[in-house]
């Protein structure tokens, strides 16, 4: 009882516990109460820790870890018509950092720079200090760089395997094949075309798996492409030109077998691909094609039925239209027959041919041959031709000899194919196309008789006219030269030229159109001229000589006038 | 088993020692060795030492620790008090000395180099301080004329002053908290509780304003801004490990934690062995603390009650703060995880204090006579 009373003295005790106090020591109850409270507090603390552990266990570790392995874009190989690889994927390692895991950014930069001396110190420092979860430091390292960086043993950095495009042919087919960016997306040429055909969507959905992608076959023949590229490079040097280009087009199917434009770039290291003068001049450049356009003027006159090979045009006096005076370069000063107008490249004669057809008929004819519309083909880099806003007589006349209208060299070649293949306009393609497929897309734009006459004129010009230097024994080349004066500061310049040679072979049944252009050629040797027949025509001749057999054209030497000459060059 | 007829000291010890406690302590020490292999090589390599430098030393320190644990557990209450009095005096002297001749590490004077061995006197002070305070509270309770509480307060003041001078705020909080809990259990009136609680709050605010690094840590914890690298990494390591861990030696986040072998060993355990092991470690600590307090609850002798409770409370606070910091539940505060973190002084001091727990919880014949009351009290507990 004493204990009970002593217990009761404590004011803090609850009445309900009085009974139990008797069994205890005097102050024990209160103290035990407090021990229990302490136990409860600790129990709560540990429960909080356990709860936190369980909570952390529920979190997804990826949230704070490095990002999931990136699906890098696979692309199909690109091969030429014989299966030679033009573009393929190779695996490279790319260096990334997780800035939140970088302990010492300065150390990382200092040690990385021993392997990557070109690393941007300040920029990289800011990247590493950004606190982001993931930053790229350097894309597409060589295996040697990768192993050296691994040997540094730096925490917070790592590698991701990425696909990188490799072009075994280097610059040879650069403008056709195109480029990809660092994310392996097509940005130029047929690489871009492939993306636009649905590969980009496929990649975005993660379905572009390397082994499922069939190679994309092109109509290009790498061997011919190489010859064209090589000849252009030689010509650039020989004639000190600022640019040169050529295309070999299958006249019957519209397949582009080879096409090159120099200067170009190496797609494996395209640091200069965006420089202005490295564009694809053949399809993305528009030029006043000069006298080569007379092919179309002549064909127009013939096709209209108003003229035939016997028609005569008075070219004895210069032609005056308003303030312009049209003169002939190789002036004969007499009345010329239609073939003479063609082979002497008479501006006056051509103007009269156009005049005969009339302005509307002239425009309609050029439109029919696709020379006034943007070419439809797979290549994304295609320029639109230009024409006068409103056709007047002066325009019709200048356009008749290739001035006042700009077209791309490629579409000029496509138009010429129609003159040679039986009158069918076939849009060009960089993918293989059979004769049946070509017939399905072809449009008949000329009478067959016109084609016969044009073949005769082309051959005639190579035999007797300005295209003599395009002659290749056995291959029956025919063609038309074009020497255009370039516009400098709004005026035609007499010493800066843009030359072209538009050719077809073999002339008894033309299979291929070969067009060469050369920009600002200089005379090969002092005292020589620099007209198309002296530079653009030899380029075509060289290309045909080296590639004719590869293109499946059988040389026939019996057709040559005079003795059979076997030439080994 | 040892025969009841065997009356040798060892046999006697084995019969009377609390084997649950013993098993818990030994398993923590074992885990300490295992985890030192996981946590310390990265740190050792970073500062240019042999990979297993810290792991080896941890094992070497285990030997004196084990000896201390067992040896102290042989003592009786009177001997514990004497040992503590001696330790307290010695450590107070050393803590004064440390301010003048101590080794400065990271801006604090905490270590004293004796014969080539670094000793942290404040670690050894804690158990001695707890025992002496428990004795003072118990004496005051037994004989209210004795100004035990007053002496305890003076002692606390001296110890806190020395700790703040180092400065070592972690130990200060630990000592204050433990003393507070002991005084609370010793029957501190509620008025005092409010006053002391207020003082504690004022002290916390004071620390926030006086010590910039304290303010910085609390700000960072509250706002999540600034350099929270180490605590972020600690949390990330646990998340990375998931429930079952990434496997021994497979951890990557642990390599980025500067103090992975000491204050952040718990996170490393999480990364490599998983949250399951973290829960196990936590359960062992909780078991020790709650079992210690339960023993205190049943204990009839005031001194033993206060002493055991105080010792396990220090132990508990230390584990709770360490785990809380590791899991980003509280502001960063350097605090070792008892028995597991690397550190010779800490390990041996913890061994001594847990040796004292073992010694004080040994079954004694005089307790039997109150056994019946015990049962009654225990059974009726919820009525309180």
| Unreliable runs of chain A | 1-26, 63-71, 562-569
Measured between the Cα atoms of the first and last residue of chain B, the distance is: 40 Å
Oligomer: heterodimer
List how many beta strands of chain A DSSP finds: 18
CATH class of the largest domain in chain A: Alpha Beta
Strand % of chain B is: under 5%
Write the CATH architecture name of the largest domain in chain A. Answer: 3-Layer(aba) Sandwich
Instruction: Output the strand order for the largest sheet of chain B.
Output: 1-2-3
Radius of gyration of chain B: 21 Å
User: Helix fraction of chain B?
Assistant: over 70%
Q: N-to-C terminal Cα separation of chain A, in Å?
A: 135 Å
Query: Largest sheet of chain B, if any?
Result: 3 strands, antiparallel
Strand content of chain A: 15-25%
Number of helices of chain A: 19
| Mean of pLDDT of chain B | 83
Q: Count up the domains of chain A.
A: 2
Helix content of chain A: 25-40%
CATH topology of the largest domain in chain A: Beta-lactamase
């Amino acid at each position: 009882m004493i204990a009970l009373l002593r217990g009761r003295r404590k004011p803090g005790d609850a009445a309900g516990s009085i009974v139990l106090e008797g069994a205890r020591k005097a102050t024990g109850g209160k103290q035990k109460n407090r021990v229990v409270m302490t136990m409860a507090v600790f129990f709560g603390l540990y429960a909080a820790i356990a709860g936190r552990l369980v909570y952390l266990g529920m979190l997804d570790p990826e949230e704070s870890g490095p990002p999931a392995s990136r699906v890098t874009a696979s692309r199909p190989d690109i091969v030429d018509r014989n299966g030679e690889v033009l573009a393929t994927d190779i695996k490279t390692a790319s260096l990334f950092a997780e800035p939140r895991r970088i302990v010492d950014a300065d150390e990382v930069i200092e040690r990385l720079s021993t392997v990557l001396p070109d690393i941007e110190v300040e920029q990289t420092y800011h990247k590493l200090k950004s606190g982001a979860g993931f930053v790229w430091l350097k894309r597409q390292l060589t295996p040697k760089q990768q192993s050296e960086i691994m040997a540094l043993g730096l925490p917070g950095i790592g590698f991701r395997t990425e696909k990188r495009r490799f072009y075994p042919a280097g610059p040879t087919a650069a403008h056709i094949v195109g480029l990809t960016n660092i994310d392996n997306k097509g940005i130029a040429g047929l690489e871009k075309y492939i993306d636009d055909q649905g590969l980009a969507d496929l990649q975005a959905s993660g379905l572009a798996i390397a082994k499922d992608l069939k190679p994309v076959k092109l109509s290009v023949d790498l061997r011919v492409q190489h010859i064209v590229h090589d000849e252009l490079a030689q010509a650039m040097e020989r004639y000190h030109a600022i640019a040169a280009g050529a295309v070999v087009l299958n006249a019957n199917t519209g397949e582009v077998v080879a096409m090159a434009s120099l200067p170009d770039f190496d797609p494996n290291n395209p640091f200069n691909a965006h420089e202005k003068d490295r564009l694809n001049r053949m399809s993305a450049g528009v030029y006043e094609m000069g006298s080569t356009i007379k092919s179309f003027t002549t064909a127009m006159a013939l096709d209209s039925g108003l003229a035939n090979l016997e028609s005569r045009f008075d070219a004895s006096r210069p032609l005056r239209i308003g303030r312009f005076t049209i003169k002939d370069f190789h002036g004969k000063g007499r009345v010329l027959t239609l073939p003479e107008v063609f082979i002497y490249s008479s501006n006056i004669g051509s103007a009269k041919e156009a005049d005969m057809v009339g302005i509307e008929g002239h425009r309609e004819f050029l439109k029919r041959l696709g020379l006034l519309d943007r070419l439809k083909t797979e290549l994304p880099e295609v320029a639109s031709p230009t024409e006068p806003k409103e056709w007047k007589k002066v325009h019709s006349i200048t356009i008749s000899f290739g001035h006042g209208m700009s077209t791309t060299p490629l579409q000029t070649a496509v138009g010429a194919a129609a003159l040679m293949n039986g009158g069918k306009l076939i849009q060009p393609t960089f993918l293989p196309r059979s004769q049946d497929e070509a017939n399905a897309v072809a449009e008949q734009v000329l009478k067959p008789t016109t084609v016969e006459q044009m073949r005769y004129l082309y051959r005639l010009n190579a035999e007797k006219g300005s295209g003599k230097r395009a002659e290749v024994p056995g291959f029956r080349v025919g063609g038309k030269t074009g020497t255009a004066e370039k516009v400098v500061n709004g005026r035609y310049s007499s010493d800066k030229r843009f030359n072209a040679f538009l050719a077809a072979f073999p002339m008894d049944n033309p299979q291929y159109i070969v067009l060469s252009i050369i920009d600002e050629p200089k005379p090969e040797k002092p005292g020589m001229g620099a007209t198309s027949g002296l530079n653009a025509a030899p380029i075509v001749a060289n290309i045909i000589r080296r590639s004719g057999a590869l293109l499946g054209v059988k040389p026939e030497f019996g057709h040559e006038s005079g003795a059979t000459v076997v030439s080994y060059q | 088993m040892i025969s009841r007829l065997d009356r040798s000291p060892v046999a006697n010890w084995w019969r009377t020692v609390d084997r649950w406690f013993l098993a818990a302590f030994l398993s923590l020490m074992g885990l300490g060795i295992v985890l030192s292999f996981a946590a310390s090589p990265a740190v050792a390599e970073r500062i240019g030492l042999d990979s297993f430098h810290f792991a080896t030393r941890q094992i070497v320190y285990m030997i004196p620790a084990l000896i201390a644990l067992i040896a102290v557990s042989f003592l009786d209450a009177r001997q514990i008090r004497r040992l503590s009095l001696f330790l307290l005096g010695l450590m107070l002297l050393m803590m004064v000395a440390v301010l003048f001749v101590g080794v400065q590490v990271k801006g604090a004077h905490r270590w004293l180099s004796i014969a080539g061995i670094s000793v942290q006197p404040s670690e050894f002070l804690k158990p001695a301080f707890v025992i002496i305070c428990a004795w003072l509270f118990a004496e005051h309770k037994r004989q209210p004329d004795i100004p035990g509480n007053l002496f305890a307060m003076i002692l606390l003041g001296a110890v806190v002053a020395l700790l703040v001078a180092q400065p070592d705020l972690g130990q200060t909080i630990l000592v204050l908290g433990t003393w507070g809990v002991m005084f609370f259990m010793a029957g501190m009136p509620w008025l005092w509780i409010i006053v002391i609680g207020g003082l504690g709050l004022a002290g916390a605010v004071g620390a926030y304003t006086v010590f910039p690094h304290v303010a910085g840590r609390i700000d960072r914890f509250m706002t999540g801004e600034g350099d929270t690298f180490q605590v972020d990494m600690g949390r990330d390591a646990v998340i990375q490990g998931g429930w079952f861990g990434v496997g021994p030696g497979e951890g990557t986040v642990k390599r980025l934690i500067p103090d992975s072998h000491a204050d952040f060993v718990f996170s490393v355990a999480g990364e490599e062995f998983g949250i399951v092991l973290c829960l196990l470690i936590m359960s062992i600590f909780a078991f020790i603390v709650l079992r210690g307090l339960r023993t205190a609850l049943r204990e009839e002798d005031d001194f033993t009650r206060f002493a055991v409770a105080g010792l396990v409370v220090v132990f508990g606070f230390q584990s709770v703060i360490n785990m809380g910091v590791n899991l980003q539940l509280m502001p960063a505060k350097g605090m070792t995880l008892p028995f597991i973190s690397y550190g010779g002084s800490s390990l041996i001091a913890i061994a001594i204090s847990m040796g004292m727990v073992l010694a004080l919880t040994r079954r004694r014949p005089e307790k039997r006579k109150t056994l019946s009351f015990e049962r009654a009290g225990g059974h009726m507990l919820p009525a309180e």
